[in-house]
Design goal:
Structural class: alpha/beta
Strand content: 15-25%
Order of helices and strands: HHHHEHEHEHEEHEHEHEHEEHEE
Helix content: 40-55%
Largest sheet: 6 strands, parallel
Radius of gyration: 25 Å
Distance between the termini: 67 Å
Strand order of the largest sheet: 2-1-3-4-5-11
Shape: elongated
């Protein structure tokens, strides 16, 4: 259905139909009513997005994340929306559910028909897919990923963040520190590397190094992983380093259900510092990334790509590490130890 069809049906010009649809005030009530009747009868809806695309700019950016139900990604989305609003940009949010095909479609430009650029937090798509990507649309990766250096990226240094958490646990007197995380992802690989670096530097014996893999980074997986440790025949760990807060929340529940005192018997710490972490029992020690800085820098890189000839995309491998801080709370703070 075209605007010209509506104009012919109503017996007016295309410009008059456009004025009515756009809310232009200088149209007589009679003409407006006639055009509206034609719009209603024909079922015409103005495609404002297509209009923007024809002008070369939509005013939208897309944000693609694995799971909106996970607190970290919800907080990240809010930070991006705030930063975009300051630029007069609207954010369209897409959840991939960690599906490789959905992530490949995004790399192939699947969101560029509705947005000027894409901010993308990938979970499963491998570097080989990125290497084969020839699209030249603006795209910025958020966080660590398996895509390598084919696109610009903004996020914290995960190795350094994990190292800071484990160094803190060591300072609290912990030596049997178990790490919980999905080691098959780039995020997991780097956080496991930071864990190993900290233990090695502290002289902790390798027999006490243990990374427990999980299928996903959520509360249920954290709970099940720690219950498995508690029900096993091995010695009780004296600390749990969870690769994200959701896993740590599950770990805290499992420890509480088993009567294990936190932090006196087992300390717990994690990465992400979502708002929930200040209200767990006990409150959770966690690495706090500056999501507002991540959002601002990612949008700036997206704009820089859009201003360059060809729009950016593959081959633009600028990497930016953003600040973070360790927020120490009761879940890891042992009496008589350094805070």
């Amino acid at each position: 259905m075209r605007m010209r069809d509506v104009a012919e049906h109503a017996g007016v010009s295309v410009r008059t139909v456009s004025n009515v649809v756009s809310g232009y005030t200088h149209v007589s009530p009679q003409t407006r009513a006639r055009v509206q009747r034609s719009l209603d009868e024909l079922g015409y809806k103005m495609d404002f997005l297509a209009k923007g695309l024809r002008s070369g700019r939509t005013g939208f950016v897309a944000l693609a994340v694995p799971y909106l139900a996970e607190p970290y990604f919800a907080e990240l989305a809010q930070a991006v929306i705030r930063a975009a609003a300051r630029r007069g940009i609207t954010v369209l949010v897409e959840s991939t559910e960690g599906d490789p095909e959905a992530e490949r479609r995004i790399l192939a430009g699947g969101l560029t028909n509705v947005a000027d650029g894409v901010l993308f937090s990938a979970l499963t798509v491998p570097a080989a897919d990125a290497a084969a990507t020839t699209s030249d649309f603006p795209l910025v990766m958020l966080g660590e990923h398996d895509i390598g250096d084919h696109f610009p990226r903004v996020g914290i240094d995960n190795v350094a963040a994990a190292r800071a958490v484990v160094e803190h646990l060591v300072e609290q007197g912990c030596r049997r520190i178990v790490a919980l995380g999905r080691n098959g992802s780039e995020n997991g690989r780097q956080r496991a590397e930071g864990y190993r670096q900290a233990l090695s530097a502290a002289g902790v014996r390798r027999v006490n190094w243990l990374v427990v893999p999980v299928d996903d980074w959520n509360r249920a997986q954290g709970y099940e992983a720690v219950r498995g440790l508690l029900d096993g025949s091995g010695p009780l760990p004296d600390a749990v380093f969870a690769f994200n807060d959701a896993l740590a929340v599950g770990a805290l529940r499992a420890l509480d259900a088993s009567g294990v005192r936190v932090p006196d018997e087992v300390a717990v710490a994690a990465i992400d510092d979502v708002p929930e972490s200040a209200y767990t029992h006990p409150p959770l020690t966690s690495i706090a990334p500056d999501l507002d800085v991540i959002a601002e820098r990612a949008l700036s890189l997206l704009e820089e790509q859009g201003q360059r000839s060809g729009g950016g995309g593959a081959g633009s491998a600028r990497q930016e590490a953003t600040p973070f801080q360790l927020v120490v709370r009761e879940s890891s703070r042992r009496s008589g130890r350094r805070p």
